[in-house]
């Protein structure tokens, strides 16, 4: 009799677990961190105007190495330690010139110029979407080229060209500043890119940089970053409505440490537009 009660208890617990993880929309059983390869995703139905799986939600970042190797002891990030990925639609004027900007070797940003060469536009991220007044001057200091950025009528920064290949048609291209605070701008081809993503903070122990990345779809459920810097190369596999795998496609530069193992993105349960910031904790 005791054995029978144990069997009934186990059966009830398993049934309850699966019923709680059922997707009300389609009846498919899902969880916040599904195993890779368990779901078939129809992306065209999930990336539309009224509903967009990417841009409607925040995505948390977790150590995904155990998906491929269960013997690995993974890191767990909680609370404010947890990096977050934010997807945004790429909307810039046709004919713009896009630059990938790298601060030191730490962070990527995306900026662009239109026909107005006096303006430099920053793509929106969690902190800003600034419009800079830009001057590239060779006259105020003969023998040197100055990059001067203004913001809201005030001097934002001034840097000397420090190297890099110059291009008479794209004078912003190159390295500016002084060690250790060097900024480099490289042109990047954004054709065919409908989205970009932001990693909002450094991922502990990983060589993946924080900042903004252009995304281009390369397969049915696969995206890759479009980058002019080797260590900006990442691949995203959309596994389900709740999980995306993020795989670095580079090795750490010489002299640098950091993991390049698999990362797993898991979707928040509440739409960004529905978050009550006074009560909701991601």
| Helicity, as a percent range | under 10%
User: At CATH's second level, what is the architecture of the largest domain?
Assistant: Beta Barrel
CATH class of the largest domain, named: Mainly Beta
Average pLDDT metric: 84
The rough form would be described as: globular
- Rg result: 23 Å
> Could you name the ranges where pLDDT drops below 50 across 5 or more consecutive residues?
1-38
Order of helices and strands: HHEEEEEEEEEEEEEEEE
Annotation field: number of helices: 2
Instruction: Tell how many strands the DSSP assignment holds.
Output: 16
Largest pleated sheet? 16 strands, mixed
Terminal CA distance reads: 45 Å
- Domains (count): 2
State the secondary-structure class: mainly beta
* CATH topology label of the largest domain: Porin
- Provide the β-strand percentage band: 35-45%
Describe this structure in words.
The chain is mostly beta strands. It contains two helices and 16 strands. Strand 5 (119-122) and strand 6 form a beta hairpin. The longest helix is centred in the N-terminal third of the chain and has 19 residues, at 2-20. The chain has a 16-stranded mixed beta sheet that branches. It is globular and about 60 Å long. Helices cover 8% and strands 35% of the residues. It folds into two domains: 42-89 and 191-270, Beta Barrel (Porin); 97-187.
